[in-house]
Structures are given as structure tokens and as C-alpha cells.
């Protein structure tokens, strides 16, 4: 069983466990940033993003996954302000010892490296503190901002999952990235801050990547 999401910080950036009292701030950010985030929202087949957010129910579901050990739900803060979310899902132990990670950040905080630092801190926590073997992130090829996060942190490209998740009204391809503990000589954040991450070669992608980088959000 995993403990609740801890508070982690570096400089102006912090992540902490999300709480029910964050519902109002979360709803406000989702509404303000709707044009920025809508393209990357998960949808049910046959539907499109509705623009309505039951943030209390969403947070309750995340906290339930936290309690049963299958997820961790973080709020991202920049200079003490609620700035976005970072969620860890599909946590498994035993022979798999793996997890998946997703995130978004409000537009006014984009371009400041906050998402990159938040992802690095949480991935380090999962691999070095919690003892997981693998962390995975899947991203739409159009989401350049999110691709830059994994590229800057040295996540290894593992392949394309065709029509993988229903996003913004249709099944979308996703590029898959991962890191395993064995391949890291030092924590991810330290490697990034010290400039030790190998330069990423986008020629490994099986398709042209690009589009409108409107959000530091993976799909």
C-alpha cells in the first residue's frame, strides 16, 4: 500500500497532495484555461468536451485511487499559487512495479519550466523513494509543449500507440515514453539541473510531430 502524495519542492515550484478544498481553484483554472486545455481533454466515445467540470467528484475519485494504492494525485503550485495538476495512475507493485503519469498547467505559468520540474520531482519520488521500477508518459504527437517536457528530462521513446485514447472527440495516437530505475545514474531532477541529459533526437519518431503547443498537458 502506498502513502498519500507528499509535498515536494524546488525553487518556486512545488507539488502536494490535492485536497477537496482545491475544488474551487481547480474549477476556476479549468474554466479560465479552457481554450488552452480543451484540445487535450479526454472524452467518451461519441462525445466532445462539455465544458462542465464536477471538480469535487473528480478529486474524490483521485483520492480514492490514492487510498487504495493505485494512484497519487498532486496539485502543482508556482510561487504558492495553484497552477495545475499532476496525476500518477496505474501504480502496480510486484513483478511490474510501474506507473503512468499525466499533467497539465495553466497557461499563465507555461514557459517557466514548472511542469518539467514537477514531473522530474514526482518521477524521482516514484523511482527512488517508492521503489518503482518504471514510469511511463504517453503524449499526443501534436502536443509539442508536453513532448518538450519528456525530451528535456531524458525519457526514452518507446513507440507509437495508434488510436490509443479518446481525446477531444476522437481516438488519438500517442507517443509513449518511459524511464526505468536501472538506467538512471542519478535522480532525474539533478541530471536535468546539471545539464547531464543527453540531447533528444526527434528522428526516432515514426511520424512528423507538431501542431499548436497550447498546453503543457499530456493527453
Mind explaining what this structure looks like?
- The structure is a single chain.
- This protein has six helices and eight strands; from the N terminus they run E-E-H-H-H-E-E-E-H-E-H-E-E-H.
- It has an eight-stranded mixed sheet with strand order 1-2-3-4-5-6-8-7, sandwiched between helices.
- The longest helix has 16 residues, at 114-129.
- Strand 5 (98-105), helix 4 and strand 6 form a beta-alpha-beta unit.
- By secondary structure, it is α+β, with helices and mostly antiparallel strands.
- The protein is globular and about 45 Å long.
- The protein has a single domain (8-204), classed as Aminopeptidase (3-Layer(aba) Sandwich), CATH 3.40.630.
- Helix 4 crosses helix 5.
Summarize the topology.
Layout: E1 8-10, E2 13-17, H1 23-32, H2 34-37, H3 55-67, E3 72-78, E4 81-92, E5 98-105, H4 114-129, E6 134-139, H5 144-153, E7 156-167, E8 170-180, H6 188-193
Parallel strand pairs: 5-6
Antiparallel strand pairs: 1-2, 2-3, 3-4, 4-5, 6-8, 7-8
Helix pairs in contact: 4-5
Amino acid at each position: 500500500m502506498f502513502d498519500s502524495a507528499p509535498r515536494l519542492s524546488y525553487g518556486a515550484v512545488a507539488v502536494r497532495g490535492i485536497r477537496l478544498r482545491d475544488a474551487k481553484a481547480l474549477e476556476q483554472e479549468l474554466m479560465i484555461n479552457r481554450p488552452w486545455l480543451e484540445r487535450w481533454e479526454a472524452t467518451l466515445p461519441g462525445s466532445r468536451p462539455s465544458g462542465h467540470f464536477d471538480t469535487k467528484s473528480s478529486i474524490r475519485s483521485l483520492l480514492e485511487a490514492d487510498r487504495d494504492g493505485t494512484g497519487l494525485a498532486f496539485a502543482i503550485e508556482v510561487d504558492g499559487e495553484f497552477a495545475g495538476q499532476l496525476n500518477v495512475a496505474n501504480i502496480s507493485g510486484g513483478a511490474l512495479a510501474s506507473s503512468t503519469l499525466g499533467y497539465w498547467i495553466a497557461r499563465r505559468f507555461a514557459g517557466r519550466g514548472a511542469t518539467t520540474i514537477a514531473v522530474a520531482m514526482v518521477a524521482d519520488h516514484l523511482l527512488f523513494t517508492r521503489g518503482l521500477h518504471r514510469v511511463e508518459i504517453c503524449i499526443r504527437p501534436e502536443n509539442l509543449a508536453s513532448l518538450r517536457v519528456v525530451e528535456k528530462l531524458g525519457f526514452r521513446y518507446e513507440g507509437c500507440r495508434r488510436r490509443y485514447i479518446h481525446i477531444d472527440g476522437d481516438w488519438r495516437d500517442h507517443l509513449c515514453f518511459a524511464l526505468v530505475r536501472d538506467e538512471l545514474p542519478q535522480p532525474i531532477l539533478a541530471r536535468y539541473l546539471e545539464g547531464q541529459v543527453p540531447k533528444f533526437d526527434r528522428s526516432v519518431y515514426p511520424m512528423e510531430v507538431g501542431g499548436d503547443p497550447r498546453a503543457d498537458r499530456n493527453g
